[in-house]
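2024-03-11 09:14:02 INFO worker-7 job=invfold-0412 stage=load source=structure_tokens
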């Protein structure tokens, strides 16, 4: 299949304009490391952002970075680390889970709103995004905050583009906040809690004035697979503290004392702690090289374990919890029962279930994204029509 790799926005605009005139579909890709996301896309050609690279503007004093969309995430992380800054939203690397290759790009991260363990306190990728430039489906170059697209005045283009999965336009440049990187971190491991007890323990930890920036529960089935099997025996409820060294020590001591009433407690030092949270973020237990179905479910934090318990009455489910219990990573033993899973989520108060990994045959049977309520779906369709009237961007990907 033809792959276009424009080196300028103008070149991208001309390719898109040509395809729009002919009504020919384009699959939008960055590094293609998240290529299994969503529903299958039927396209005539591929349009890649990988020719649009480079840091456009970065003054650490302003804590803002502007970068072309095809720039590898690794290059950005290296530049930020050198200046002692970071992407607060800790984007996950999907390659191990999705068994993809290539280099993750910053455009792909924002297009999929990829947000890691710190999300429940610092917000999603979307919340760090300050500005975008993109080419819409008419072949027009649009700058959010600058040129306003006809008929979409009043919509927050920046927020719309984050999480739109390449269905509204080709991102060409992004500007985002880059706060200081914590000098150090520690993790408290509370051992031996079941899922419900862990949900209570995490809620109690979050209620303390200790600025916990990571709260996950790793049941027995997964705990052993982290940090080379060196986690203390039993279920592990893990709580992260970050900041300046003195402050981290004091807060970690207080947290350990409070959690010691619930179970036995161990502390993980900086290096091990960093590795653990990278593995939690990248879904290490289920990065098993298989295509067994993986669901990413987002619900209220107190609901995650109830959902898993209810599902287990019906089928084999392995799961672990991030975001204080609100993000559930699930591996199903059998084929993905999307309707059943979504019925349970609805019954427990609502949330999102996204099918992350599955065989092509299973994908064809299951909507990858959480179906939208009718009113929201109508609004989405109208937005799509304004951005991409010929329907050429990633057709079918989001349903
Ligand atoms: C602390 C906390 C409490 C919560 N409490 C509740 C609650 O009480 N009730 C509840 O229902 N939910 C709750 N949630 C879930 C939350 O409100 C959102 O439903 C969820 O995080 C998805 O939001 P998002 O679009 O930002 O996430 P994302 O990660 O961007 O999206 C979730 C999924 O939807 C897809 N998606 C993103 N944009 C679109 C789009 N435009 N069209 C179609 N699909 C799209 C994404 O690709 C992704 O797969 C809670 C979450 C947290 C962290």
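2024-03-11 09:14:09 INFO worker-7 stage=emit residues=399
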């Amino acid at each position: 299949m033809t792959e276009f790799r424009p080196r300028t926005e103008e070149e991208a605009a001309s390719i898109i304009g040509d395809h729009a005139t002919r009504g020919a579909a384009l699959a939008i890709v960055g590094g293609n490391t998240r290529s299994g996301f969503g529903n299958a896309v039927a396209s005539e050609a591929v349009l890649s952002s990988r020719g649009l690279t480079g840091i456009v503007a970065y003054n650490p004093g302003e804590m803002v970075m502007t970068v072309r969309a095809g720039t590898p995430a690794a290059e950005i992380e290296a530049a930020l680390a050198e200046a002692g800054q970071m992407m607060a939203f800790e984007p996950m690397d999907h390659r191990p889970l999705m068994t993809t290759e290539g280099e993750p790009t910053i455009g792909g991260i924002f297009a999929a709103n990829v947000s890691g363990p710190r999300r429940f306190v610092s917000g999603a990728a979307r919340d760090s995004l300050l500005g975008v430039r993109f080419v819409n489906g008419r072949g027009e170059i649009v700058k959010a905050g600058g040129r306003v697209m006809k008929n979409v005045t009043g919509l927050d283009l920046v927020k719309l583009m984050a999480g739109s999965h390449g269905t509204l336009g080709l991102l060409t440049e992004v500007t985002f906040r880059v706060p200081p990187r914590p000098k150090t971190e520690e993790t408290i491991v509370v051992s031996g809690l079941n899922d419900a007890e862990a949900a209570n323990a995490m809620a109690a930890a979050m209620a303390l004035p200790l600025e916990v920036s990571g709260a996950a529960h790793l049941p027995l089935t997964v705990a052993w697979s982290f940090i080379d099997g060196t986690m203390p025996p039993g279920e592990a409820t893990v709580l992260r503290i970050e900041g300046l060294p003195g402050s981290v020590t004091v807060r970690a001591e207080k947290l350990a004392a409070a959690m010691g009433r619930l179970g036995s407690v161990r502390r993980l030092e900086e290096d091990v702690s960093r590795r653990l949270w990278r593995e939690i973020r990248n879904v290490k237990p289920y990065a098993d090289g298989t295509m067994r179905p993986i669901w990413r479910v987002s619900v209220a934090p107190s609901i995650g374990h109830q959902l898993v318990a209810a599902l287990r009455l019906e089928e084999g489910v392995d799961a672990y919890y991030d975001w204080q219990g609100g993000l559930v990573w699930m591996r199903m033993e059998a084929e993905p029962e999307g309707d059943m899973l979504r019925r349970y989520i609805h019954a427990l108060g609502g949330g999102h279930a996204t099918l992350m990994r599955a065989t092509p045959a299973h994908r064809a049977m299951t909507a990858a994204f959480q179906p939208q309520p009718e009113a929201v779906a109508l609004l989405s369709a109208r937005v799509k029509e304004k951005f991409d009237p010929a329907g050429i961007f990633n057709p079918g990907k989001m349903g």
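2024-03-11 09:14:09 INFO worker-7 stage=report msg="The chain has a mean pLDDT of 94."
2024-03-11 09:14:10 INFO worker-7 job finished
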